[in-house]
Specification:
The complex is a heterodimer of chains A (283) and B (337). With 283 residues, chain A is mostly helical. Chain A has twelve helices and two strands. Chain A folds into two domains: 54 residues; 206 residues, MetI-like (MetI-like fold, Orthogonal Bundle), CATH 1.10.3720. The longest helix of chain A has 34 residues. With 337 residues, chain B is an all-alpha fold. Chain B has one domain: MetI-like (MetI-like fold, Orthogonal Bundle), CATH 1.10.3720.10. Helix content of chain B is 67%, strand content 1%. Chain B has a two-stranded antiparallel sheet. In chain B, helix 5 runs antiparallel to helix 11, helix 7 crosses helix 9 and helix 9 crosses helix 11. Classes of the chains: A mainly alpha (283), B mainly alpha (337).
Chain lengths: 283, 337
């Protein structure tokens, strides 16, 4: 084989491997979406049916009207959205303040705070759930979405601060100094100079918090006892009923739950990597 | 010139000249604060959340592990009763704890190894692919990465379904010498993967590796892009083959990346919950519990035993803290904080 032919063969093999990886990653997602559009006799079969030959919207219609556990999926989507957006608004404001403090100031206790941040973001949520469950019940926020929001703010804040701090640090200090010399106050400097420049980072951090709160199962599962307060991840469990699994409906529901996450994810994934791996990746 | 050094953003140590005061009325309060206090004021909300909703509950968890906490205590009608080491004795004397610990550790070991191997291979592949092809594969990976854990569980539960699952269908296609059907069955169809612990954890490993490899791949790709190409050129000139180049150049330079990725994967896989919850259909099959599932099941399934659940969580948290220390050391070493 000539070197040129060998090189070409290598390239073909590489691209083939790329296609295999693409299929491996994307096929299960495709399977979820396509099953949501299949008729039941194409779902409950030992045959492999890659494409729904008869498209049907019956499953999507069913989850949106009849729903599950006495409520339409809309209600659970709405609950999930309230929790996720509430977490984002409270969490981002807090995270921005803390991130500004550690990125812009040198103060006593700063490095301790940073180490505490790193440690608490690794604590197991299932462990925190037990004492937080007691606290939330005691203060009368059990069964209320606000109780869920509070726990999600706590779970997302450490990573939010950690991620946002690099964005604040990336804004050149000279810009703020210039504003300061021109007579702007601290508040004006913050809102007019720092805030607009950090906004992209704030969006990235917010999306991360949104996804975390949107995906949470275990807190919603045990803090909310009435079905009116269920979020999507909890509601989906009720499709696995005693009478067998309604695969069409559950795939339609899963698809609806996955859509916003995929959309946000495509926007934010680069930042996620840099936030988690921090200085380990230089590039 | 000494004066210019005192001008710092958002909080210079020089007293503001009086003529600035009338520019805006809303800044009287900020201006009144001494400079040293500004960062602390900014930290107040964050500190309150971290102290009140993370550190204090962790302390509470430790306390509850030594108490009997049931429904009456949740309602606040009776105070928690101090029981000493009883919870730990009960947990450590229970077979379920040991099988849950074994499931957790074996699962984490297998899942972390496979995720790292697959992720690294894909990262290297992405680095060598052309620009368009690379983007195409990355987008595919994004889908797997973005699926919420509960939906991941749903997807793989359907793929591993005994009757209609693709996994059994695919195994039937393979020749018998490669994948013979289980004893006494003419074909794979009807094999209930999720009913026994080995099958359940096989599905969980496949699910978690599938969802976890894209993060590793993208991180490794970012690391590879940071390695100067001259190193590879020099290696090629010196006659080094691809495997040798990978071992002698790529791996050592990516060591810090791998250290962080390994620790993160261990932490994530140790506390996997949602996927297992869906695959095993809630905390039903006690043999299939891992530590988080066992803790939650003890704490919340009636009769509620929050104290026992807390004791199990304490064990899990201690294991995770040990791993976290390695992560923190790694980050502190690499990063100028």
């Amino acid at each position: 084989m000539t070197p040129l032919a060998r090189k070409r063969l290598g390239k073909i093999l590489l691209n083939a491997a790329g296609v295999v990886v693409f299929l491996y990653a994307a096929f299960p997602v495709y399977w979820m979406v396509s099953t949501g559009f299949k008729e039941n006799d194409q779902i409950f079969t030992t045959e492999f049916i890659p494409f729904p030959t008869h498209f049907t919207f019956e499953h999507f219609a069913k989850v949106l009207t009849e729903g599950v556990a006495n409520n339409s999926i809309w209600l659970y989507m709405r609950n999930s959205a309230i929790v996720a957006l509430g977490t984002v608004f409270i969490g981002s404001a807090f995270a921005l303040l803390s991130a500004t403090a550690i990125a812009r100031f040198r103060f006593k206790g700063r490095s301790v705070f940073l180490v505490v941040l790193l440690i608490v973001q690794m604590l197991p949520a299932e462990g925190l759930l037990i004492p937080l469950y007691m606290m939330v019940k005691r203060v009368g926020l059990g069964d209320q979405l606000i109780g869920l929001i509070v726990t999600q703010v706590a779970l997302t804040l450490p990573f939010g601060v950690w991620m946002l701090r690099t964005f604040v640090a990336a804004v050149p200090k000279t810009l703020e100094e210039a504003a300061w010399i021109d007579g702007a106050s601290r508040m004006t400097t913050f809102w007019r100079v720092l805030f607009p420049l950090v906004a992209p980072g704030l969006v990235a951090t917010s999306i991360f918090s949104f996804i975390t709160a949107w995906n949470d199962l275990v807190f919603a599962l045990y803090l909310m006892s009435g079905s009116e307060g269920y979020t999507m991840p909890v509601a989906l469990q009720y499709f696995f009923g005693q009478k067998g699994v309604e695969w069409g409906a559950i795939m339609a529901g899963s698809t609806l739950m996955t859509l916003p996450v995929v959309a946000f994810f495509l926007l934010v994934q680069r930042r996620m990597v840099s936030g988690l791996v921090a200085g380990a990746v230089k590039g | 010139m000494a004066d210019t050094t005192t001008v710092t953003p958002g909080g210079g140590s020089s007293p503001a000249p009086g003529n600035r005061r009338d520019k805006s009325s809303g800044r009287v309060r900020t201006r009144g604060l001494p400079d040293w206090s500004i960062p602390y004021v900014l930290l107040v909300p964050g500190l309150l959340v971290i102290a009140g909703l993370l550190l204090y509950p962790m302390f509470q968890l430790g306390v509850m592990a030594f108490q009997r906490v049931g429904l009456a205590q949740v309602r606040g009608t009776r105070p928690a009763e101090w029981v000493g080491l009883e919870n730990f004795e009960r947990v450590l004397g229970n077979e379920i704890f040991w099988s849950a610990l074994r499931n957790t550790v074996v699962f984490a070991f297998v899942a972390v190894s496979l995720t790292l191997i697959v992720g690294t291979a894909v990262g290297v592949l992405l680095h060598r692919l052309g620009k368009k092809m690379s983007l195409f594969v990355v987008i595919g990976c994004m889908f797997a990465w973005a699926v919420p854990p509960v939906a991941q569980g749903v997807i793989w539960r359907s793929l591993f379904d005994a009757e209609a699952g693709i996994v059994n269908w695919a195994l039937n296609l393979l020749p018998d010498w490669l994948a013979a059907p289980p004893d006494g069955q003419p074909s794979w169809t009807g094999t209930p993967w999720l009913n026994d612990t080995p099958g359940l954890y096989t599905a969980l490993v496949v699910c978690v590796v599938w969802a976890g490899f894209p993060f590793i791949a993208v991180s490794v790709l970012a690391g590879l892009k940071g390695i100067p190409t001259e190193l590879y050129e020099a290696a090629r000139v010196d006659g080094s083959g691809p495997w040798r180049t990978f071992r002698k150049i790529t791996l050592p330079l990516l060591k810090p990346v791998f250290a962080v990725l390994t620790v993160l994967s261990i932490i994530w896989d140790f506390k996997v919950f949602s996927q297992l919850y869906v695959l095993m259909n809630g905390p039903t099959n006690r043999d299939g519990f891992n530590l988080s599932m066992y803790a939650v099941a003890e704490a919340f399934r009636p009769p509620q035993k929050l104290g026992t659940g807390a004791a199990i969580s304490v064990v899990l948290t201690i294991i995770l803290l040990v791993v976290t220390v390695v992560y923190v050391r790694q980050i502190v070493k690499q990063e100028e904080m």
